[in-house]
Specification:
This protein is of the alpha+beta class. The strands form two sheets. Strands 2-6-5-4-7 form a five-stranded antiparallel beta sheet. It has a four-stranded antiparallel beta sheet with strand order 3-1-8-9.
Length: about 220
């Protein structure tokens, strides 16, 4: 079950064994600068006690040089970007939100499993399963955007659902983190129920992601 997800996890762990040092996650991507915000659809994880217990336990053991731990209210699963807030007009946002809300009423809530740990050069995440449910929601969001805009931002391909619990904050040696993670690979995953997709205005401040909620698209299908 979930063979795609587990095969990908194995590939990533194999690559991680040969990683000499972390890559600093906080370099400025194209277009980003201090104070600028970005519209994006995310899944967020408020009121998810099982997940919060797992992340708290893992982070307690990942207080290591080179890692910036993600606060519980900063946990997220990136779904689909729209664009910088100073480049997207309000009428387009309203139309995209309305279209996304209309389409999401046909989708049921997402029942997901998060875990085990899934590291790479820019941090430590949790494996998300099943991918196909998250992909279905992302496709629905992209179709909603495509009903308003001729071109949907970002590629449809290459999407890998994941939830980061610690970002790499420097080019620290990977070996101490790898050794610790080897002891954490068999933690039981957490179950979550996601009842909406959330449109946020995302910003980067003090080596964390923070956001303001713009709108929500409830998943109310049967």
């Amino acid at each position: 079950m979930n063979s795609r997800e587990l095969a990908n996890l194995h590939e990533r762990w194999t690559a991680y064994q040969n990683l000499p040092e972390l890559t600093n996650h906080w370099y400025w991507r194209p277009g980003w600068r201090a104070g600028r915000q970005f519209y994006t659809w995310h899944l967020t994880f408020e009121r998810q006690p099982e997940l919060h217990r797992l992340v708290t336990d893992l982070q307690r053991q990942l207080t290591l040089p080179g890692l910036d731990l993600v606060p519980l209210d900063g946990l997220h699963l990136t779904m689909q970007g729209l664009g910088f807030t100073d480049e997207v007009n309000n009428s387009d946002i309203e139309a995209i939100v309305a279209e996304t809300q209309r389409r999401c009423t046909k989708l049921p809530p997402l029942e997901l499993s998060l875990g085990p740990v899934d590291p790479d050069a820019e941090g430590v995440g949790l494996l998300v399963r099943p991918w196909h449910r998250v992909e279905q929601l992302r496709t629905t969001i992209r179709e909603a955007i495509g009903a308003v805009w001729q071109t949907v931002p970002e590629a449809a391909e290459g999407f890998r659902p994941h939830v980061t619990i610690a970002y790499s904050g420097s080019q620290a040696p990977a070996e101490p983190i790898r050794d610790r993670l080897n002891d954490l690979r068999h933690q039981q995953p957490a179950r979550v129920t996601i009842r909406q997709a959330t449109l946020i205005a995302l910003r980067r401040e003090h080596r964390t992601y923070q956001w303001a909620t713009v709108a929500a698209a409830p998943l109310t299908g049967q």
